[in-house]
Design brief:
The chain is α/β, with parallel strands linked by helices. The chain folds into 4 domains: 82 residues, DNA polymerase beta, N-terminal domain-like (DNA polymerase, domain 1, Orthogonal Bundle); 45 residues, no CATH class; 167 residues, Beta Polymerase, domain 2 (2-Layer Sandwich); 247 residues, Metal-dependent hydrolases (TIM Barrel). It is built from 24 helices and 16 strands. The strands form 4 sheets. A 7-stranded parallel beta sheet has the order 10-11-12-13-14-15-16. Strand 6 and strand 7 form a beta hairpin. Helix 21 crosses helix 22. The longest helix has 20 residues.
């Protein structure tokens, strides 16, 4: 690592410290050290430290500790702790020009806003302006900052993009000449991050004339391109919208083409040519040039001798070949999920009780809920002590007894999200881990390990028979943190061999594993667990996006652990422990507890 990179890490630490309202002197020390270190440019950090280049230049001891950590491990334990203790949505808000950590803290504390999407909503509806020391001008400045972020072509998370698309679509549907409208593009394909909003409209009259009138819609800042039936607009909030207007009989093909991906469209077009059919513009013609009517997308694929390809699969990843052979699996649907296995409560960093989380799961039609709070080593997330485990398990037992007495077919399972420590050991001794129905093993520290070190670390953890699920396997946070270096193929192969499920963490900030890795898991025989990583009842709604991501990765119900009953999940977890199964520990005794 060079000094420039180290300076960036120090600046990140200072920003997050300020966000968490830590001591001002500590924040200032990090900023000062960052300026000093940055002055050494591409000088190797180890060389700078060993040559005493940074001593006597105003670098505080606490900053020197961070620099030594960076030099030794290529990462910072302090930075990782701060990142993990920060809601992912606040990290995304730091990308907004002109919005600093102190204001983000005030917004979060005053309005409980923890996402860019909710921040924009608060700026629109007046809540932001009503905050003490904010006012209309500050709210407008923040709204403009979000618009400027979008205007640079910056990506946003899929839920934010979808919400924007629906808002714009509702406005355009009100146009008297619009007969039918659909959202297309990367939003319809359920990509993890999106940039533009693509809309397709079936209209009355001449499409190009109707398209031109959209330039007069309220909220349009500028027209980026037009003159035909497709208009590109920039809205006041920075969103770019491409609207295609077509005659009603062209709508199905126009929607298919605008949905993409470009590579999928190209492959289908080439396939059509082998049949003597021509896909040009928004029309399908036979070898004699005659127009072939297309009622909808399903009719298009059928006319081409292909099985229907759902929008989320249209990525040129083998789906056209599979459709030609009718070899598509029956993809998982939301109704196939019967339980959620990655949920936090107020025992660690969740915002609700176990009872409230269970009530929310029941309301969503689930049959069981797996409580998996953070383990003891994860102090920044309120990791659960051994004594707290006893209290939690007693509470779960009482709740399950209440369900049984009232004839309620629902269960709460006892789980834990146990840290995979840098040495590869899973947090807690075996006698403690024995008490849980299932264990999610997750990396929450030392992200700076090189690929071999991180891979060995996780492979070692997979040897622990208590581990049921490998949580968010690459550690990525979309738009804010890159995945750590790891040989994911080797991890998936090992997981399939030893019977550990790979998590598809459905939190929209993570979506980890990636949908492409879902294909690998399927090939390697590793089950996938779709976990909402819910820290509140509302967090259970993440399962919807998890299902879409799983479908994008070609997963069927048979590939997903939590399509199975609670008894089947417990059997899956016990199967790994069977060779070392022993009599259970006494109910109220945990070895080593105080």
């Amino acid at each position: 690592m060079d000094c420039r990179s180290a300076a960036f890490a120090l600046t990140q630490i200072a920003t997050l410290q300020e966000l968490h309202n830590e001591d001002r002197l500590a924040v200032r020390a990090m900023h000062t050290a960052a300026r000093v270190v940055a002055a050494h440019g591409q000088t190797d950090l180890v060389q700078a430290l060993s040559g005493d280049l940074l001593l006597g230049e105003g670098v505080a001891p606490v900053a020197l500790d961070v620099l030594r950590d960076l030099a030794l491990s290529n990462g910072s334990a302090l930075l990782e702790r701060l990142q993990e203790a920060t809601p992912e949505g606040l990290l995304e808000m730091l990308r907004v020009p002109g919005l600093g950590p102190s204001r983000i803290r005030a917004i979060h504390d005053g309005l409980h806003v923890d996402s860019l999407q909710e921040l924009e909503r608060a700026a629109r509806d007046g809540r932001l302006a009503a905050l003490p020391k904010f006012g209309e001008k500050t709210a407008e400045k923040i709204f403009k900052g979000i618009a400027d972020l979008r205007a640079t072509g910056a990506y946003v998370l899929w839920p934010h993009g979808r919400a924007e698309a629906e808002r714009i679509a509702d406005a355009i549907r009100a146009h008297p000449d619009v007969i039918e409208l659909a959202i297309a593009g990367s939003i319809r394909r359920r990509m993890e991050i999106v940039r533009d909003v693509d809309l397709v409209c079936a209209v009355r009259g001449i499409p190009s004339v109707v398209a031109a009138t959209f330039a007069q819609l309220r909220g349009v800042r500028e027209v980026l391109g037009g003159g035909g039936r497709t208009l590109s607009l920039r809205l006041d909030d920075g969103v770019r919208v491409d609207v295609s207007c077509v005659r009603p009989e062209q709508f199905a093909l126009a929607l298919w083409r605008a949905t993409g991906s470009n590579a999928h469209v190209k492959q289908v077009t080439e396939h059509a040519a082998t049949l003597g059919l021509v896909l040009a513009g928004d029309e399908l013609r036979d070898r004699d040039g005659a127009l072939v009517p297309v009622a909808d997308e399903a009719a298009l694929y059928a006319r081409l001798g292909l099985a229907y390809v759902v929008p989320e699969q249209r990525e040129a990843m083998g789906e056209v070949e599979a459709a030609a052979h009718g070899a598509f699996p029956a993809l998982i649907r939301e109704t196939d999920l019967v339980g959620a296995l990655h949920c936090h409560s107020h025992y660690s960093d969740g915002g609700a009780s176990i009872h409230d989380m269970a009530t929310a799961a029941r309301a969503r039609g689930l049959q069981y809920l797996g409580i998996s709070d953070h383990s003891q080593s994860n102090t920044y997330a309120g990791g659960v002590s051994r004594d707290a485990i006893l209290r939690q398990h007693d509470e779960i037992d009482a709740l399950n007894a209440q369900y049984a007495a009232n004839g309620v077919a629902f269960r709460v399972l006892k789980g834990i999200e146990a840290d995979i420590l840098p040495c590869g050991r899973v947090d807690y001794p075996a006698a403690v881990l024995d008490r849980f129905d299932f264990v999610i093993g997750s990396v929450h520290s030392r992200y700076g390990m090189n690929e071999r070190q991180m891979t060995d670390r996780v492979l070692k953890a997979l040897d622990d028979p208590h581990v049921t699920i490998l949580g968010h396997p690459t550690g990525r946070l979309l738009l804010t943190r890159e995945p750590y270096a790891i040989n994911l193929d080797a991890i998936i192969e090992k997981a399939g061999a030893v019977g550990v499920a790979m998590e598809l963490n459905a939190d929209p900030n993570r979506l980890d594993i990636d949908w492409r890795a879902c294909r690998v898991a399927q090939e390697k025989g590793a089950l996938v667990s779709i976990g909402p990583d819910a820290h509140s009842p509302q967090g259970l709604d993440h399962l919807e996006l998890g299902i879409a991501h799983a479908r994008k990765g070609w997963l069927t119900p048979a590939n997903v652990l939590n399509t199975r009953s609670a008894d089947a999940v417990l059997a899956f977890a016990r199967a790994r422990r069977a060779p070392r199964a022993a009599a259970p520990a006494p109910h109220h005794v945990i070895p080593g507890s105080a």
